[in-house]
Amino acid sequence: MHNLDDIDAKILHLLQQDATLKTRELSEKLNLSYTPVYERVRRLEKEGIIKKYVALVDREKVGKKLMAFCNIALKEHSKVMGEKFVKAVSAMSEVMECFNISGDYDFLLKVVVDDMSQYQQFLMQKLGSLENIGSTHSLFVMGEIKNSSVLEMLTPKK
C-alpha cells in the first residue's frame, strides 16, 4: 500500500469527481502552488495509483439499453484453460468488466448491449463458442440505482 497523505487524498478525490481539472485548477482548489500539485499528480500517475483518465459515457444515450451480469462456471480449472477463457472474454467488446469470483461460479461478467436480441447473439455466438464453459446464468438489470467510480476511502478529511 502506498503512503498517501491528506493532500494526495484530496487530489485523488478531486480528479475522481472531474478528471478534466487542470493542474492550475487543482492548485487553486487545494490552496497550493502549481509545482507541488503538478509533481504530486505525476507521482500518483507514475506509481500507478492514477491508472488512466477516461470519459464516462451514458450507455443508454448511445443505444446500449441492456445491461446484464453473466455468471460463468468453467468445466475445467486448469491454468491453460483459465487463461484461454480470460483472453477470449477480454477481447469481447460487450464485456465491460470481468471478475474472477468464488462460490458456485468462476467468473462474473458485466455485459452491455443494445437489446435482448443482441444479448442472445452474444451468449450463443461468442460465449457459446468458448470450449470450456460449463454453465452460464444471466441476471438482467431493471434499473440502475447507483453507479460510481469514486473510491470513498479516498474522501479527504474535512
From TrEMBL:
HTH asnC-type domain residues: 4-65
Segments passing through the bilayer: none
Cited Pfam families: AsnC_trans_reg, HTH_24
The organism's place on the tree of life at top rank: Bacteria
CDD domains per record: HTH_ARSR
PANTHER family assigned to the protein according to its UniProt record, in alphabetical order: LEUCINE-RESPONSIVE REGULATORY PROTEIN, TRANSCRIPTIONAL REGULATOR AZLB
Phylogenetic placement of the source organism: Bacteria, Pseudomonadati, Bacteroidota, Cytophagia, Cytophagales
Organism whose genome encodes this protein: Dyadobacter endophyticus
Name this polypeptide is given: AsnC family transcriptional regulator
